[in-house]
């Protein structure tokens, strides 16, 4: 008769194994979570090698590293039971510890959840990475692989990466640029999202997918159920994001995928290096490249604050029963009139344009058509011309789209900073991006004396020889004088 091999939480009856009676209150034991020793001695995860796992709750107290707990472990009945059952087949401790330190199997985070954030270099992904790495209590670790390490356009990359790290959740923030061709939008926004979802289903872990209000119609108080009809005439971006939503819903209903869709409105915040969306509007005013207002009075849109997104993601990960299989609009409660945003930016920058004349949509559309025609002719001559990606959404500048927050407010999530809006954050956002664009020489018409320039930077422009000599003379001393502006 084959001997049934049991795990430590079963033998000790501590209630901290997977789905244990005390797991919700005290947390799941690290031995039950640590996957790098899975199947060692016939156990689940580290259930039959618990003596090398730090942070286990044995004898009523939290145990430290193996070096500190080994004496106590050798007196443990379960430890001796496993050694007796395995006999000469028992794995040596140095082998087990080596596997725990081997990052090719999984990070050494025995008491933490491990997540993977796809698109971690973008505005939303960057905000999530910053939050999880600096603002959390330490019970969660996240990886943010770049496209060279993990391309969601390559099924093999996805399979090998997730088999290697075995994460506890996946968050997909990756998007193809708004002006991408059909192939790129299809592969990243749709196929990539579906491939990640299939991996999440295979690993039986939650999948958080970021979508966009571009999948919803124009109008006021648009609910989560209001989505566009899938049509060939949609933009590549809207079409691919809408297809992803539909496939995720199908996989949930037919295959049990544990997913949540988070639909974002116009996103504002600091970090992203791309000039698109809200940043494009800011750039156009700052660079004085918008002579007149491309909108009309009364047109409003919803806005999403990047700083609030990580708190929502954390909440939906902690409350899977409530949020699984659901889509949520995520934006500030109060929509904002587009003309008011433009005027606020213009006032802060003290610039003359755009002049307070609203260009009617037919005229704006005609201008857009002419610019597109000129760009195509120049490209035929070998001149690379790229119009702003947002121009394909020109009609949106003239039509209201406000998202309903009722479903979100009925949920257990609470926005504890409703006073934070695009207007309250506008000053810091403008300052952040203007300094960034000035340093990258992207602002051509804005005042060069904009606040934030430093004395060393001025010397670098006007007298580099003197600056070099001055810095070299401090080679044996701290360089705080010069590093302060970095």
CATH superfamily of the domain at 113-265 and 302-335 and 400-420: NAD(P)-binding Rossmann-like Domain
Number of helices: 20
List how many beta strands DSSP finds.
16
Shape, principal axes of CA atoms: elongated
Strand content: 5-15%
Distance between the termini: 70 Å
What's the helical proportion of residues? 40-55%
Quick one: CATH class of the domain at 113-265 and 302-335 and 400-420?
Answer: Alpha Beta
Q: Main sheet?
A: 6 strands, parallel
Overall SS class: alpha/beta
The neighbouring-strand order within the major sheet is: 4-3-5-6-8-13
Task: Describe this protein with a few key phrases.
20 helices, 486 residues, Rossmann fold, 12% strand
Draw up the topology in text.
Layout: H1 8-12, H2 23-26, H3 30-33, E1 57-58, E2 61-62, H4 66-74, H5 77-86, H6 93-101, E3 113-118, H7 123-134, E4 140-143, H8 155-165, E5 169-172, H9 182-203, E6 207-212, E7 219-222, H10 236-255, E8 259-264, E9 266-268, H11 278-286, E10 292-293, E11 300-301, E12 303-305, H12 309-318, H13 320-323, E13 326-330, E14 336-337, H14 338-349, E15 355-358, H15 361-380, E16 401-403, H16 406-410, H17 422-439, H18 455-462, H19 464-472, H20 480-483
Parallel strand pairs: 3-4, 3-5, 5-6, 6-8, 7-16, 8-13, 9-12, 10-15
Antiparallel strand pairs: 1-2, 11-14
Helix pairs in contact: 7-12, 8-9, 9-10, 11-14, 14-17, 18-19
